[in-house]
Write a structure and sequence with these properties.
The protein has 125 residues and is mainly α. It has a domain at 74-113. 57% of the residues lie in helices and 0% in strands. The chain is built from five helices and no strands. The protein has helices spanning 13-39, 50-54, 61-68, 79-97, 101-112. It is elongated and about 95 Å long.
Length: 125
């Protein structure tokens, strides 16, 4: 018959110091990453969770995909839908920055191209 002895384990001073150091270093890492993400909000390419959410697996995948949009969305191949998206973007850009008429014409030329080189195709070659 085996006897179970009561074992008193005590945590030594070195272990306590290492646990405190571990907790501080993990906290520092979270603080640094959070501040870095906040700092990128004012840059041209702010940090987003889009990649994480788009690659989500499991039962909440449809919810996460709805947040970021489907990367396999075939509407990007429809020229009318793409043109409509560009028009919405240009409208937001114009209202946000308050473009002058000359700047609006330049933006239209950059998005739609010059009218002198425009020709509608009846069918694909």
């Amino acid at each position: 018959m085996l006897c179970c002895k009561k074992v008193n384990l005590t945590v030594g001073l070195c272990a306590c110091c290492l646990l405190i150091l571990l907790r501080l270093s993990i906290g520092w890492q979270f603080l640094y990453e959070g501040l870095w993400k906040l700092r990128t909000l004012s840059t041209p390419t702010p940090w987003t969770a889009k990649g994480y959410l788009a690659n989500a697996q499991g039962p909440l995948r449809p919810l996460f995909r709805a947040m970021t949009g489907d990367p396999d969305d075939l509407s990007w191949l429809d020229p009318e839908v793409v043109a409509e998206r560009w028009d919405r973007w240009a409208e937001k850009f114009t209202t946000h920055y308050g473009l002058t008429d000359q700047q609006k014409r330049r933006l239209d030329q950059m998005l739609n191209g010059s009218k002198a080189f425009y020709a509608r195709l009846e069918r694909l070659p």
